[in-house]
Amino acid sequence: MFIIGISSSAILGTSSSRQKKQAQQFAEAGAAAETAGNLEGALSDYSQAIERYSAYYEMYYSRARVSYQLADYQSALSDLDVYLSSNPEDGAGAYKLRGLCHFALDQFSSAVDDFTEVILNSPESLDAYYQRGVSKSKVGDYQSAIPDLAIYLSKYGSNTEALMLLSQLYGLTGDWENSYKICKQLETYQPDSANVLSLCGSALYNSGQYEAALPYWNKVLGLEQSSADAYFNRGNVYFKLGQYEPAVQDYNQSLALAPEYADAYKNRGLSYQRLGDLDQSLSDLQTALSLNPEDITILISLSLSYSALEEYDSALQYLDQALALNPDYDDIYYQRGNVYYAMEDYDSAIEQYSQAIDHQASLENSYYNRGLAYLKIGEKDLAKQDLQNLRELTTNEDIIAAIDKILKELE
Questions:
Q1: If you placed Cys at 95, which of 55, 64, 117, 319 could pair as Cys (CB 3.0 to 4.6 Å)?
Q2: With 70 as the cut, is the pLDDT of residue 170 above it?
Q3: How far is CA 140 from CA 96, 136, 151, 169, 336, in A?
Q4: Is the pLDDT reported for residue 1 higher than 80?
Q5: What is the mean pLDDT of residues 186-197?
Q6: 205-221: pLDDT as tens digits
């Protein structure tokens, strides 16, 4: 470990020469003890030096360094504050140590400030960029953390921890393309890491590349056959590919390993829903709801199953529960519109679709379905207006063709 040199010239002030000399001796003994790994001894010696000469500011930094190694972060911070109050222009190392202490105490915003001071004092300190990036990620400032990690990786491109974090940060900001790009770099260093393969599979899944994601989850399960999450994630890939039976099998495996996995019950319930087994779907979704009673997506899924059974009152009941939990959850209004439409209560359906449109929820489907509801009550002009609005919004050729057919029939 690098230890700041102890020089007699650092001892200034009005204390007696004898006290200064004793302080210097303890400082040198502390440095020797620290070098030898005798941290407790070093701490005692540095404290003795300060006791004999309180203005010996280098000793506050030295004692802080030892306190940090002994995991006494609060004491280290106190000493660093004293040191920096007397040496504000000579603080790159002290600010770095203070940043590490703040980080260890989960005081991440303060750590960001300290590592920023390090960078201002020593722009070539790439470690500070890495440490600041990690600290920013801890406070949720993902977008700002990305360039810090990129700067660090410009020199230390093989640091797998930094690559892993950067890939995760791109994912957290919704940039799945770059998340996968960084993950591929990481894969060259750790080709048999389940964590790396999971990260690559997740990036592809979230970017809609389900077929490309599937081999990654197969590899993960080849490495971790007892991972409930891996079975769950591969099940999700199968679900997105429309392969509901293998999805159910993977959810079965996931639940065998984690019997209270609410999301696995929910997604298995949705798979059964797609397979037409509505009784099993309802059973799974009810179990999921008992495990996670405030999951709005489960309530919406239950309403879909009851709607398929034409039990519309029950479907609305679950949507009402969802609305009570979160009145701003946009998709509820669209789903309520669908239930009312199926009940042939077109006025109520129009009201719900209008709410959905106001919330910018399921916008294309809401315009389309509201247009159809207007047609049902004979409001052709309003129907045409909704369909024309949708035609301007959508790029789906099939929807455009369907709209053009309806509009032609209304002429």
A1: 117
A2: yes
A3: 21, 6, 19, 10, 35
A4: no
A5: 96
A6: 999 999 999 999 999 99
Q: In degrees, to the nearest 5, what angle opens at C-alpha 135 toward C-alphas 128 and 92?
A: 30
Q: Are 301 and 269 in contact (CB under 8 A)?
A: yes
User: What are the angstrom distances between the C-alpha of 246 and each of 7, 166, 271, 328?
Assistant: 72, 33, 10, 35
First to last CA, the chain: 84
The answer to whether the beta carbons of residues 199 and 183 sit under 8 Å apart is: yes
Produce one character per residue of 307-319: b if its CB has 16 or more CB atoms within 10 Å, e if not: beeeebebbbebb
User: Residue 253 — φ and ψ, nearest 5°?
Assistant: -65, -40
Which pLDDT score is estimated for 325?
Answer: 96
pLDDT at position 8, please? 45
Distance CA 323, CA 342 (A): 20
For 319, the enclosing helix (H) or strand (E) is: helix 312-325
Burial classification of residue 30, based on how many CB atoms lie within 10 Å of its CB (0-12 exposed, 13-18 middle, 19 or more buried): buried
**pLDDT higher than 70, residue 276:** yes
DSSP for residue 343:
T
CA distance 330 to 229: 29
Angle, to 10 degrees, between the axis of helix 262-275 and the axis of helix 296-308? 20
174: left (phi over 0), alpha (psi -120 to 50) or beta: left
Residue 288: which residues within 8 A CB-CB, separation 6 or more? 262, 263, 265, 266, 269, 295, 298
Structure tokens at 5: 């040199």
pTM for the full model?
0.83
For residues 152 and 77, what is the distance between their CA atoms, to the nearest angstrom?
A: 26
Query: Which tokens sit at 109?
Result: 């915003």
CB 338 within 8 A of CB 344: no
